[in-house]
Each structure stands twice: as C-alpha cells, then as structure tokens.
Amino acid sequence: MLAHLPHLEHLSVSGNQLASLDECRLPHSLNSVVLNENNFTSLDKVAHLGTHCQRLETLSLKHNHITCASRSGIKTVTSLPPSLAELDLSYNDISTWGIINELPEFCPGLKHLRISQNPLFETLQAADGKPLTSADGYMLTVARLPKLKTLNYSTITDKERLNAETYYLSQIAMQLSRAPAEQEAEIISQHPRYRDLCEEYGEPKIQRKEDSMVDPNSLAARLMECNFYLANGNTGNSSPTKDSPWAKELPKSLSIYAVLGIVGKQFDLLPMSLRLVWETGEKERVKPRANAWTGVQEWDSSDDEAEEDGQGWQEREVELVAGTRAIGTVVESAKAVIRVEFN
Predict the structure, then answer these.
(1) From CA 8, how far away is CA 236, in angstroms rounded?
(2) What domains sit in the chain, N to C, each tagged with a CATH number?
(3) Structure pTM?
(4) 114: three-class secondary structure by DSSP
C-alpha cells in the first residue's frame, strides 16, 4: 500500500505489533515516522530507515521494548540518516548505558532526544556503589552525546554541558581508581568519549587502591598525613602556604581539641581562636536558594529548573569543629589538606 504513496511525508503505525522494518518498502519522501506501542527490541530493527528514508527528521519509538542498539551485540553498520534530528526512546526497557554510547554513531545528526521513563534512571549507581539521582542521570546522558541540544524537552546550556562532562570524567576516574590496572583498557572501552574528554579537560589522576594500600594492623594505618597552611595572611616570612604547607602525621584517634592545640603551638596562636577546614578536593552540588520551588517534577525538566535556581557545583569543604570527636572520624582520607583560619 505504501508503494502507492510516493509523496508521503508523515507516517504513524503505532500499536501494530511490528518488530522489524526489514521487509517494509517505505517511501523515500518520509519526514516523520511514529512507531509507538509496537514490539521493537533494538534500534537495528529500524535501520532500514537509514537506506530508504534520507529525508527523515523525526522518529518516535515510545512504548516499545527497546534495550540496546543491536541484539547481536555487534555495532550496527547501517546508521539512521544524518537528517534525523529528533528521537523519542521514552518508556522502553533501556537499563544500561550501551545504547546511549552508540547513539552518536547510529544517529549522527541527533540533536533532540527524549529518553525518560526507562529502568536505567531508576537504578543508577556510582563506581563506589552509592546511588545516583535522576539529575545525575541527566548529566551523564548529556556528557555522552556531544551534539545534543535538548534532552527531554529541556535545552542544554553551555554551563550544563561543562558540568555534565567534567562530572562524567570524574565518574570514569573513580571507576578506574577502584579497578586493577589490567582492567583499564576494558573500562575505557565502555566510555567512548573518555579520550575526547581528557583532551578537553585534562586526563584525571588515577589513584588505585593498591597504590596506597597499607596493613590495617600497622602503625601507618593509624596515622594520617595532615598538610596545614595559613589562609588569613602570614604571621612571618616562613609561614606555610598551600603550595608549601606544614606536614604533620597525626594519630586518627586524636581529638579535634588536641589537633587545635598542636596547630596553635606550631603557629604560636591561641588554639580556640583557630578554625580548621578540610579541603576534600571533591565537588558538590550547590543547594538551591531558599525560595526556590521544591515541588515534585518530572525528571525530564528537573535540571532546567535547577539551573534557573542557581544550582551549580563548588569545592566540598568540611570544618573540623572543636570537640572530643576523633579527627579520623571526620577526615576520610590518609592525606588531608587543612586550611587554618584565625580571627
């Protein structure tokens, strides 16, 4: 029947239990195709569009059973036409990043994507096992698709892309740090954008566990190296700076009161006039303004709202509050940079 419609531009065949387009003879004139509520399980089942519909701009595959780009596990040779700019994959069964990693190759002209309501964004975890939010999923998706202009109808700003790509790079670095060196190539192969991101932002430092592993029963395991520097001006020409701090190994069981006493004696300052701030070297999300709207929102627009409310990223710092609490229960690393402030 479609062969008798050579000038057809818009086609909708939703709810027809279609599982493949391989045997379909579609008009070359098609501009928009809607395949919602069918039985497609992978993107290669619609690869026929790449060779027969060179004018295609919009493709909707909402409410199917798509899990991957290719059921065979081999990257699809045929890609969709470069004219395809809009793709809707919402309400499918996507549970891994594999299909998103392949989208730049499978859809070279993709600029607008909708991918909400997939299992992937309900079970996200960082390399250390900590659960990630839907906002993290939004950023990790943006970072994987360098040409994307909108995601789930939200425009991607330059600032959002910068935050997304640096965050993604830090997550890859964390994954590499927690794996043996012999698995590095395999892990990098799971992140096709890793080399490009390293060229853009610099290669992250990989600190593997075995590089700093110590016997938990040894004296070294009970000590931490603290690098103190003065932040409120120098008290003398030899005062330590961030580039040249005063290094001191301290027992992790030492109370913060005792640490203040040691620092105060070293710098000839009253201990209780000092304020100790641990610079973690990590980034954290800035909380929205107090008057920001905090109601329940659909995931596909939450980050746009967050951007408008001034939500961004900043260096994470932890104040070592004077008390009997052991410093080792606050500072989580074996080495720490601690800023000393005084009133």
Answers:
(1) 81
(2) 2-201 (3.80.10.10), 214-342 (3.10.20.90)
(3) 0.61
(4) strand
